[in-house]
Amino acid sequence: MAEPSAATQSPSVSSSSSGAEPSAPGCGGSSGACPALGAKSCGSSCADSFVSSSSSQPVSLFSTSQVHDLIFWRDVKKTGFVFGTTLMVLLSLAAFSVISVVSYLILALLSVTISFRVYKSVIQAVQKSEEGHPFKTYLDVDITLSSEAFHNYMNAAMVHVNKALKLLIRLFLVEDLVDSLKLAVFMWLMTYVGAVFNGITLLILAELLIFSVPIVYEKYKTQIDHYVGIARDQTKSIVEKIQAKLPGIAKKKAE
């Protein structure tokens, strides 16, 4: 009598257990999800499927957190290396031509790599070792860019290009008179800046500001926010007075 009752109860138990733990497609918790494979193989199969599904998304070279840590000097050695290298390149461009700077940089890099290659070859010949090429690890790195990733990058760039074109059309065709006047004043000020500084000098100043202003602002945030708020209020009041005196803007506000 016990066997029939157990037989009648087994379908309900099986259905409830399968309903409590639904298996994901391709990899689940049930034993039938990965036939003829162990738990470790199933996990690796799931990881491979996850990587293949996420590989279509473009991977940025530098994330926002990495750039933030760089300009805020979280890692002094890394930031110092990037800041010193870029500053040296910009100073070299200010003193020499672009062709000369690029040529010297390539020659310096080739001198280091060739010297290291010859040194390792001599060491291997003396010690009679078979370590192989010293840059074998880097030569085996796959740096090819797939067509799908290239199209993803191009689509992301086209979004910014389209926004810039719309902004330029709006400013030059005077959709908003105040915005166009702001651009005109800014360009007028840039003529004086261009008479004193050239492009390389502006890049050097921009780099100095990028690597100094954020860390200073982080240290004196309260005081800077106070004075910036005062300047913003005064600028806003001046802009409102100018807009009130312009007939087209006043009429637009009245409507």
UniProtKB/TrEMBL annotation:
Record keywords: Endoplasmic reticulum, Membrane, Transmembrane, Transmembrane helix
Gene3D superfamilies referenced in this protein's UniProt entry, alphabetically: 1.20.5.2480
Region named Disordered: 1-30
Cellular compartments annotated: Endoplasmic reticulum membrane
GO CC, any one term: postsynaptic density
Keyword Transmembrane helix: yes
Biased composition regions of type Low complexity, renumbered to the chain: 1-25
Signal sequence coordinates: none
A family per Pfam: Reticulon
Sequence ranges assigned to domain Reticulon in this UniProt record: 67-255
Membrane disposition: Multi-pass membrane protein
Listed GO biological process terms: brain development; endoplasmic reticulum tubular network formation; neuron differentiation
Chief place where the protein resides: endoplasmic reticulum
InterPro entries according to UniProt: Reticulon, RTN1-4
Membrane-spanning ranges: 81-110, 195-217
Cited PROSITE patterns: RETICULON
Protein name: Reticulon
